Amino acid sequence: MTSREQRFVRLAADLADDFAERADEHDRDNTFPFENFERMREAGYLRLTVPEELGGLGADLNDLVAAQERLAMGCAATALVVNMHVSPIGQLASMWRSDPRPRLEQWLRDCAEGKVINAVLSAEPGAPLLRDSRCTAVRVDGGYRIKGKKIFGTGSSVMTHFSSMARFDDPEAGPQIIFYRLPAETPGLEILRTWDTLGMRATQSNDVLFDDVFVPDEAVFHRYPVGTLDGTLLKTVWGWAQPTFAATYLGTALGGVQRLRQQIIEPRGLADQPQIQALMAEITVLTETARATIRHVAQEMTSGHLFTDLDVQSGMSRAVMAKYVGANNAVAIMEKVMQIAGGAAFYNRSSLARIYRDVRAATIQPYNNLDALDLFGKTSLGLPVAPVNPLQAEAVGSRS
Q: Phi/psi of residue 16, each to 5°?
């Protein structure tokens, strides 16, 4: 790691070691770790990706994947929730560097001052990967009225603001996806307490109902045609989310490896057994393969090569590869951890049982395995996944 990355990892490590003490309790009680967010606010982690000149710590994507891996070793749920905050802020910071708009600058300064905790409310049942939405937008004076429901509302328990999307059937331009950002106290927004899941229980990613929510025109920050692969989302959402999701789940699994050493291998003197050595060797290969893939994609994003040297679909395939490899290797790592731990990890009171359940969410989170393989296969054969909405010239900017 670079000295910059080491600095951010040390920050994440201090937090992770504290969070680990409460992770099992929050999982068992199905409660949100509010105290962890207060700790991250005090330590500066919530302003990790805000540019330094605007009051933040200035972490780029390379720094963020290193920090998120380490943070997730302590509490996977906390790391996943905060990723929905620090990753979008990093996306906006990169856009601000290309186009320093005053309104965006003020938003980033508010993030640095702790006035904003962001959540991304975009997941819907059956909606294909941000290419359509079952939430509907109707045009009214000064903006839109939104109706619908979102699932997997990660961050909804602690958000002060959120970004979301809806479908607007524009009579002139045709069906459009509109993205918008609003305060959490917006009238018509209701959090439905639905979260009772196999893993990642402490994220409290509840459903969110939109009942005639008003979105003023100035809150809409992006739009593109329904059914398309959008180039701007490659430079922002997908290019940042895929490697950071991967790093978070890899860190989750490595938290399991750490506990395996401390709770099983060392106390029982198992290190001399050839079978244990072989499984630990496989864990090491899986870890370093995932890290190499994640770091490579993060570097391509940071340099700009991912969205300037590749077409949109090829760039998407490259970004999703980081998440696919990281997620599946994390699951494979925990499978081997459970083999070594044996019956001791079968009890729900075991931290390894919680981590095993938490890491199962890795292959479900977009891009899920089936969608990812469809993207990889078609891209490798030169076949289109969907029509492309090119990255606009003003969104490309200069390489960071």
A: -60, -40
Phi, psi (deg, nearest 5) at residue 389: -100, 105
Whether 396 has a pLDDT exceeding 60, the answer reads no
In whole angstroms, give the CA distance from residue 273 to residue 189: 56
- Angstrom distance (rounded) from CA 14 to CA 16: 6
- Whether 74 shows a pLDDT value over 60: the answer reads yes
Q: What is the DSSP string of 181-226?
A: EEETT-TTEEEE-----SS-GGG---EEEEEEEEEEGGGEEEEEET
Query: Which region, left, alpha or beta, applies to residue 136 given φ > 0 means left and ψ of -120 to 50 means alpha?
Result: beta
Residues 153, 342: Cα–Cα separation, whole Å: 34
Decide: helix, strand or coil at residue 347.
Answer: coil
SS3 content of the chain, % helix, strand, coil (to 5): 60, 15, 25
Mean pLDDT (the chain) is 95
Could you tell me if 112 and 103 are in contact, meaning their C-beta atoms sit under 8 angstroms apart? no
pTM given for the model: 0.96
Q: E strands along the chain, which residues? A: 118-121, 136-140, 143-150, 161-170, 174-183, 189-192, 207-216, 220-225, 229-230, 388-389
Angle at 252 between CA 260 and CA 3, to 5 degrees: 100
